[in-house]
């Protein structure tokens, strides 16, 4: 398997509907339609050119992808719903690439997003899956914060880290966010500000916990000869692994650790070659876990890795990440992908990484009762 596995397909565009902290009167379907319209504008295509649609959303129900297709006036030859949370978008991308290569579609729009009313989020965290509803909801544990607080405690003990070490990641991402006009949270933050924030679930403070917002993202995957414009992005490697340890491990390693070697071999590059990284950042601990699993701390020195992130020597989550831009439900799994596309296309404005040619993006999520079951990653290059 090699980068040639992805021949004939490019990612032509990526867009983001600006996230909003306060719920609006619009529905999730309207947000997804807005993202789809922005995607057409960005790509120079029209709705009649789209013959594939993939959708990831927690709150689109009772509608599904086919209902959204109808509302958008589409008659797709390929249509897919995805329910893998933070891993949804890379999962959709994998399937879209294969669909195009095998002639099932030529131009596929992938959209993701959510609009949360307070009752929507409460319902989601209490009924995330059967395990959550049966075993965690009766405990009134408050959702994933308590689960990842315990995971952070284990991680800190194993690696000898302090709260300030995790805070350095939040501060670095806020510095990136200050350069992103679409970030919901752009106010400068120091480590002292981070440490002073109220505790939510020891050792997690308010600034460790990804803020819930509404919003949507979309990307366009197309046959390479149909892409308009010179700034398409190619995939060099993509690997997924789900439910790797059946929830019997300690959660400090994701399944990225098991697929990383194959990912880099397929892409024909190494972590040292990468110009920027987007990792799923629902909590700072998961930033470190995924980066380590991908090989960015090959010697196991997480303090050195944190120093590279804090100094922005290693550009990580250059949009500000979900910790500063916000987590728009299932859109959180596409946010980092859209940011990497923008960077590789040279469209990131003041936060543009100079001469960005190679990026890696990871997805993580779908907590069972201890931690996420899904992880995947994609290596992309400027075409």
What does this structure look like?
The chain has 383 residues and is α/β, with parallel strands linked by helices. The chain folds into 2 domains: 126 residues, Peroxisomal Thiolase, Chain A, domain 1 (3-Layer(aba) Sandwich), CATH 3.40.47; 241 residues, 3-Layer(aba) Sandwich (Peroxisomal Thiolase, Chain A, domain 1). It is built from 13 helices and 11 strands. It has a 5-stranded mixed sheet with strand order 1-7-4-2-3, sandwiched between helices. It has a 4-stranded mixed sheet with strand order 8-11-10-9, sandwiched between helices. α7 packs parallel to α11. One of its GO terms (molecular function) is acetyl-CoA C-acyltransferase activity. InterPro entries: Thiolase, Thiolase-like, Thiolase_C_2. This is Thiolase family protein.
Features:
single chain; 383 residues; alpha/beta; Peroxisomal Thiolase, Chain A, domain 1; 2 domains; five-stranded mixed beta sheet; four-stranded mixed beta sheet; 13 helices; globular; acetyl-CoA C-acyltransferase activity
CATH hierarchy class name of the largest domain: Alpha Beta
The amount of helix comes to 25-40%
- List low-pLDDT spans: none
Structural class label = alpha/beta
Strand order of the largest sheet: 1-7-4-2-3
Report the sheet with the most strands, covering strand number, pairing sense and barrel closure.
5 strands, mixed
Oligomer: single chain
Named at the architecture level, the CATH assignment of the largest domain is 3-Layer(aba) Sandwich
The name of the CATH superfamily of the largest domain reads: Thiolase/Chalcone synthase
Number of strands: 11
Work out the radius of gyration: 19 Å
Q: And the CATH topology of the largest domain?
A: Peroxisomal Thiolase, Chain A, domain 1
Overall form:
globular
Number of helices: 13
GO molecular function, one term: acetyl-CoA C-acyltransferase activity
Protein name: Thiolase family protein
Domain Thiolase C-terminal: 246-367
InterPro entries: Thiolase (IPR002155), Thiolase-like (IPR016039), Thiolase_C_2 (IPR055140)
């Amino acid at each position: 398997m090699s980068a040639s596995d992805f021949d004939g397909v490019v990612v032509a565009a990526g867009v983001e509907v600006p996230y909003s902290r306060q719920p609006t009167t619009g529905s999730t379907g309207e947000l997804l339609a807005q993202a789809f319209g922005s995607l057409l504008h960005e790509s120079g295509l029209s709705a009649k050119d789209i013959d594939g649609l993939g959708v990831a959303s927690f709150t689109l129900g009772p509608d599904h992808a086919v209902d959204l297709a109808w509302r958008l006036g589409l008659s797709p030859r390929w249509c897919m719903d995805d329910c893998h949370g933070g891993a949804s978008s890379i999962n959709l991308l994998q399937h879209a690439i294969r669909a195009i290569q095998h002639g099932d579609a030529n131009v596929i729009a992938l959209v993701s997003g959510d609009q949360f009313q307070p009752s929507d989020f409460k319902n989601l965290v209490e009924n995330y899956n059967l395990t959550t509803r049966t075993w965690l909801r009766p405990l009134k544990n408050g959702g994933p914060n308590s689960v990842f607080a315990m995971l952070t405690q284990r991680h800190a003990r194993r690696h000898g880290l302090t709260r300030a070490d995790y805070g350095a990641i939040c501060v670095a991402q806020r510095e990136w966010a200050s350069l992103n006009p679409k970030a919901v949270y752009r106010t400068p933050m120091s480590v002292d500000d981070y440490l002073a924030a109220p505790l939510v679930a020891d050792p997690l403070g308010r600034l460790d916990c990804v803020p819930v917002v509404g919003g949507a993202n979309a990307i366009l995957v197309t046959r390479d000869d149909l892409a308009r414009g010179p700034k398409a992005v190619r995939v060099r490697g993509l690997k997924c692994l789900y439910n790797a340890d059946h929830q019997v491990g300690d959660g400090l390693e994701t399944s990225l650790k098991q697929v990383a070697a194959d990912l880099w071999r397929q892409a024909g590059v190494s972590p040292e070659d990468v110009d920027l990284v987007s990792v799923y950042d629902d909590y700072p601990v998961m930033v470190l876990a995924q980066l380590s699993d991908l090989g960015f701390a090959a010697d196991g020195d997480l303090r050195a890795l944190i120093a590279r992130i804090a100094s922005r020597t290693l550009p990580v989550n250059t949009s500000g990440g979900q910790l500063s831009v916000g987590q728009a439900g299932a859109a959180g799994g596409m946010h980092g992908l859209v940011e990497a596309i923008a960077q590789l296309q040279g469209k990131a404005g003041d936060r543009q990484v100079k001469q960005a040619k190679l990026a890696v993006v990871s997805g993580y999520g779908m907590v069972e009762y201890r931690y996420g079951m899904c992880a995947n990653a994609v290596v992309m290059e400027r075409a």
